[in-house]
From TrEMBL:
<dbReference type="GO" id="GO:0003755">
    <property type="term" value="F:peptidyl-prolyl cis-trans isomerase activity"/>
</dbReference>
<dbReference type="InterPro" id="IPR046357">
    <property type="entry name" value="PPIase_dom_sf"/>
</dbReference>
<keyword id="KW-0413">Isomerase</keyword>
<keyword id="KW-0697">Rotamase</keyword>
<comment type="similarity">
    <text>Belongs to the FKBP-type PPIase family.</text>
</comment>
<dbReference type="InterPro" id="IPR001179">
    <property type="entry name" value="PPIase_FKBP_dom"/>
</dbReference>
<keyword id="KW-0732">Signal</keyword>
<feature type="signal peptide">
    <location>
        <begin position="1"/>
        <end position="22"/>
    </location>
</feature>
<dbReference type="Pfam" id="PF00254">
    <property type="entry name" value="FKBP_C"/>
</dbReference>
<feature type="domain" description="PPIase FKBP-type">
    <location>
        <begin position="233"/>
        <end position="320"/>
    </location>
</feature>
<feature type="domain" description="PPIase FKBP-type">
    <location>
        <begin position="76"/>
        <end position="172"/>
    </location>
</feature>
<protein>
    <recommendedName>
        <fullName>Peptidyl-prolyl cis-trans isomerase</fullName>
        <ecNumber>5.2.1.8</ecNumber>
    </recommendedName>
</protein>
Amino acid sequence: MPRRPLAMSVVSVLLLATAACGGGSGSSEKADTASDTKALAGVSVDGEVGTGLEVKLDKPVKTDGVKSEVLTTGDGDPVKANEVALLQLYIGNGTSGQKAVNTYDAGPPVQVTMSEGQLFQVLLDAVVGEPAGSRVAITAPASDVWGAQGAPQLKIGPDDTAVFVADIVSVPPTEVLDGPEGKQLEPPADAPTVIEKDGAVTGFDWSTAPEKAPQKLTVIPLIEGEGPPARAGSMVTFDYFGSVYGSKKPFDESYSREPAAFGVGVGGLIPAWDKSIPGLKRGSRVLIIAPPGEAYGDQPREGIPANSTLVFVVDVLGVS
């Protein structure tokens, strides 16, 4: 997968680091309704899922254990354990009334794997099984989340109450095609030719392509899909094949494995993908030629020299 190196924001790195040092597992007790209950006593939440989140804490917020409450129930596919999801997340100190983190401040959602060590256990207990589009709030003793040390980097002590609000923005699509489907399009005569075997992309024929790589991002539609379009800030499932321009061997591909699901437009992929994938319909196949500035620039990667132009075949097989 053409991920951008060091692509995660400071906020998302912080979330992963604090999750990894967590000590307690806690047991989550979900409220039956989204009305004002003990789970949200002293906590006011405004804004729509996916667009914004404002949380006001009337200090001190107190709780006698880990409690969670579904504030908004979405209509998407459910979050699954050990799979990725895109979340927007608020963390606050209910004792002091201060915000620690709100990922909406940074813009795009954070892609997180739903497993212990990647996310707080109290959040896993609350969001796994909930559908995309949902908003869940959690209050918990900080010691149940991070252990006896609390979370000093978030200015939350072990005796404080931790407040979380999680928006489930997107999960991997469940409707995934076996391969591209749609109208075949004629590429330009000087485009590299895609080589296939038994329906899988295996390489490029460069005989018709210019010796010098294009200097600008180039997207060449090969198959125009007829399904719903991919959206920035959502999960998309792909098959892909990537080579350095002019090379007969890939540096990475998915056709010999399972298709890959990843968030687009959230800063986790190289710029060429984040710019090219949104708007493509399910079933589409495109050829993406990414100059260094739209790929990895002067940073070498395994199989990719510094300042390389990269060429990808991308099949959009599922969109959420």
